[in-house]
Amino acid sequence: MGTAVYGFVVLSVLVLAVAAAALFMARSESVLDEALDSAVRKRTEAAGQDFARALHADWADLKYLSGAIDGSDLDGIGEVMAGMRGDGTRISWIGYAGVDGTVREASDGLLVGADVSERPWFRNGLRSGFAGDVHEAVLLANLLRPEGGEPLRFVDLALPVKNLEGDLTGVLGMHIDAGWAERSLAEMARSLGIDLYLISQSGEIVMSSTGTTAGVEEVMQLASARSGAEASGRAEWSDGREYFTTLVPNLSYADLPNFGWRLAGRLDAGTFQAGLHSLVGSAALAAALALAVLALLTFLFVLIFIRPIDALVDSATQLAAGEDAYPRERNSTREAAQLSAALARLQARRKISGS
What we know:
By secondary structure, this protein is an alpha+beta fold. It has three domains: 12-46 and 189-275, no CATH class; 57-180, 2-Layer Sandwich (Beta-Lactamase), CATH 3.30.450; 276-354, no CATH class. The chain has eight helices and ten strands. Strand 6 (195-199) and strand 7 form a beta hairpin. Helix 1 packs antiparallel against helix 5 (178-192), helix 1 runs antiparallel to helix 7 (273-320) and helix 7 (273-320) packs parallel to helix 8 (334-354).
């Protein structure tokens, strides 16, 4: 009987282990995919919000400055602009141009007297608040970086300036260093553990956190990424690795004008593999401990409940064979005690009848 019990326990454990492993394998991938999809969507949305908030701080400064400008009296405005520009690592240039397109005041006096009437920030700023896409420096290229090197790129903010009577007097413009913006995007990506790509209205990647230029296939995959409201799913990229990709279709914060940007976030599908392996290892260790406890309990069960019955079965066999064997008294269980007493009575009757 002890062998049967051991066999039953081993078979039950095997069946449960196979069923649990099959269920875990079937569900683990879908659960992991859901977790990764949710992670990339939430992290990309958070990055987009923080990026737009950082630009809105400059927009708020520009609005404040516009209220301080009087088209007929610009005394002291240049110093205010220079203070807002700081060391130039974030804001490259701030300037005010009259309605004729001539720059009348600017930070550090740069471009004062220059004609900016054909620049997009001026033309659009005459009508309303404007946010311009990333572009290379034109008029400021030689002034800010006369020694050459990497071409300067700017992000534009502009808004019309009006006097107390509500008449348009000019346009206030700001050039934000695109390099600073890209570094900020990269810092957000590192802190969130994802890759970020800023995509223009034309579908071009204007900034990325990876520091590498995306190929044609990558651009197509990013441009076709679904919005954060939809599940994106796995996709294999040209590097042979699988990623989850999601898209924030519009970057906005408060009254910041629309740049027309979309933000794509990419998360390596193997991000949580280490944690999954750790979980599997912990589960295996827990299963091993459970098996050890089950084996000990099974051994004690057989020793306490099954072995006495086996001994009584041996005694009964000996009595049936006519041997003079007196069964030992067994009180481990009620059934064993009853069987032991019954065998003792049979042995006693056998001796009486034999005498």
